Amino acid sequence: MKEDERRLFLMTCIGGAAVVAAGAVAYPVISYLAPRKGKDDSGVVTIPEKELPSDGAKFFQFHGKAAVVVRKMDGSLSALSAVCTHLGCIVRWEAKQGEFLCPCHGGRFATDGKVLGGPPPRPLEQLKVTVANGVITIG
Amino acid sequence: MTLFGKLYNWVELRLGISQVIEKEMTGYLLPRTINSWYSLGSVLLFAFALQVVSGILLLIYYVPDADKAFKSVSVIMNEIPFGWLIRLSHAVGSNLMVAALFLHMFSVLFMGSYKKPRELQWVSGFTLLNLVMGISLTGYLLPWSQLSFWATTVATNSVGAVPVIGEFLVEFIRGGKLVGPPTLGRFFAIHVALLPLVIAGLIAAHLFFLKRTGISTPPTSDTATAPQLGNSYRYEKHEGGIPFFPNFFLHDMSSVAIYVACLLGVVYFSPYLFFTPDSFVPANPFQTPAHIKPEWYFLANYQILKIFPSEIIGLTVQGGAMTIIALLPFVDRGDKRYPLKRPLFMACAIGGIALFLALSIWGHLS
Prior knowledge:
Chain A is α+β, with helices and mostly antiparallel strands and about 140 residues long. Chain A has one helix at about 5-35; strands spanning about 45-50, 55-60, 65-70, 75-80, 90-95, 100, 110, 115, 125, 130, 135-139. In chain B, helix 11 (about 300-305) crosses helix 14.
């Protein structure tokens, strides 16, 4: 084997070993740094119906984001994402007006998520909600 | 021309990198008789870098709050992917780093490399050893376990033996009369900010001294002596020596690989070698566990304090020994570097190391 070939072979081996070693270091470090999945990041969320005020809304975490369940005028329930569709602020329940207000730029939403005013381009995302035996199930 | 070649040329035109490589790497000549002990400096640089990186990673999940610290360490160990690997690498790494520092110091002692003109390297190196022991001590409290809490209580308590201001010093270090949440805040700041900065600065100074004096020649013959200082600065050249890169660089890398193998060997096969059962119980200020002992490298100090009836005598003995070691190049001023030509020094050094080991074993068994 010529000297140049031997040198190339050795360099390739060292380079390969370095790549494997870098991977062996990078994999645990990236896994360590990756965002953690919370306990409520998937599946459904259950809330006892008595925890929902008659004229109010109940905020909770759903799949890692803020969500809200509210009783509508007709007595049925509505579950929505609480993240404003304008710039991602969390909406606030205005009991007197019976609507949601985004305190960042004044976006207003109805209890079914529709935009009533302000800059939000889309309605709030609706979530599936059911009630059985006094327990509200979202998702 | 390859893309790498073009990039190299671009940088070369602007910074003259080839000159730097020639001066610091391929043209930086080392003595032909250089041995593996000389690579311990590179091993320690690597060990320090690993402690910094693993420490930064731990900071992401560690909570420096007395109510949450233990839980956060448990979460790192049990829930975060590879958290156990990062945390154990940091904890085991601190112990191995102290061990490597001792070996580095012993090699310098036996080869007489601390002698003129390298007095500043010795003083900065010995200060680094003490700072690393200090950073280990402050890091010991952070998991807020029974071991952390009570070992820190004992360690900080010994400062109380200092005459007149002892009690004030203890309270100042702890941030209160007893070890508690304020102590954790102080130790956390010292461990993650103050000491790493001071250590990094002192490492830079240590390397600067090395670059200015030149590397010492191993004393392989009985005629080996420290160079005479003339009237002007002189760099110790090694004409006809081996280049740092690639020759000794590969040697350094082999030593680093051995260090990593030892580290991972402990992490994987004996992960709790440096942990006692009290490390797994949250701190309880109202329940002192039996037989609280410091880390292995403080066992000799711990035993000295136990031997002497008065704490102040124990502290004075330790302070005296430390001062002599720190000022060694100014105490041992002979020119001879070959170990067998320094029988008195070698007897004292070997006797000192044996005493340190005996006190450590006694402290461990007592």
